[in-house]
Amino acid sequence: MLLERKSAVITGAGSGVGRASALRFAKEGALVVCTDIRLQWAKETVRQIEAAGGVAIPQECDVASEQDVAATVAAAVERFGRLDIMFNNAGIPAPRRGKTIEDHTIEEFERITSVNLRGVFLGCKYAVAQFKKQGDGGVILNTGSVAGLVGLGDTIYGATKGGVHQLTRGVAIECAPFGIRVNAICPSGMPYTTNFTAAGGTEVPPDALEQYAERVGSIHPLGKPIRAEDCAEAAVYLVSDRAANITGVLLPVDGGYVAR
Ligand SMILES: NC(=O)c1ccc[n+]([C@@H]2O[C@H](COP(=O)([O-])OP(=O)(O)OC[C@H]3O[C@@H](n4cnc5c(N)ncnc54)[C@H](O)[C@@H]3O)[C@@H](O)[C@H]2O)c1
Known about the structure:
Elements: E1 7-11, H1 16-27, E2 31-36, H2 39-51, E3 55-60, H3 66-80, E4 85-88, H4 106-134, E5 138-143, H5 155-175, E6 180-187, H6 196-199, H7 209-217, H8 228-239, E7 250-253
Parallel strand pairs: 1-2, 1-4, 2-3, 4-5, 5-6, 6-7
The structure holds nicotinamide-adenine-dinucleotide.
Nicotinamide-adenine-dinucleotide binds at residues 11-12, 14-18, 36-38, 41, 61-64, 89-92, 115, 143, 145, 187, 189-190, 194-196, 199, 228.
C-alpha cells in the first residue's frame, strides 16, 4: 500500500476529484479527513470509504475561512495523531462561465479568489505549521488547472489557478529545507464525474452529459474526456513516497492539451 497509515486531509472531498482521491487514498491505506463545505457530501464519501473497508472521518470546512482550515488540521491531529498529507483541492468555477472581464462584479471576483486562492494559501499555511511542529517533513498537493497554464477565456478562474500554481512553486522552494514537498495537479475540463460544470451554472441535461463529455474530450490530443479518477491516480502518486524527490511540479492531467 502506497499510503499506509498516512493521515491525509482532502478539501472538497464531497464530490468529483476530492471524492475520487479520498476513495483512492483510503484504498492505499491512508486515514482520510474528508472535508467539504457541504458536510452531507463529505459524509457520503466517508460512507463509501468505510463500505470499502477504509478509515475516514467527515469534517465541515469552508476553505475560505481561516478558522475552518485551522480546525480541520487540528481535527486530523486529534483523530489520527499527526498530519502527513494536505490536499488543497476545493475550488469553484466563475459564475456563468465565459463572462467577459468587464461583466464580473467585485463580489464575484472576491468569492472566487477567496475559495480558489485564499483557500489554498490557508491550507498551505496551516499544513506547513503542523509539519514544522512534527519536524519530519510532509506533503502538500494543490489542485490547479490547465486554465492557469494557458489562456482559456475563463479569465478570472484562470487567474486564481495561476496563483495556485505560483503558490505551489513558492512554498515548494521555501519549504524544501524542511523536507516538505509541494506539487499541483492541473486538470483539463471534466464535464462529467464532477459537479463542476453544474456549479458554474452550465446546465447539461443528464442524458446529454456523455455526448458533451466526448465533445470536450475531443479537444485533447488523446481524444478522451478527463475523469476525476484520472486526477486521483496522479494525486496518489504525487503524495506517495514514490515521488519522494519531486517538488514544485505542476502536473497537467489533460490528455496532452497544454503540450501543443
Ligand atoms: N471539473 C473541471 O472541469 C475542472 C478542471 C480543472 C480544475 N478543476 C479543479 O478541480 C478541483 C475539484 O473540482 P471538481 O471538478 O471535483 O468539482 P466538484 O464541483 O465536483 O467538487 C468541488 C467540491 O468542492 C466543494 N466546495 C466548494 N466550495 C468550497 C469551499 N468554499 N470550501 C470547501 N469545499 C468547497 C464542493 O462542495 C464540492 O464537493 C477544483 O479546484 C477545480 O477548480 C476542475
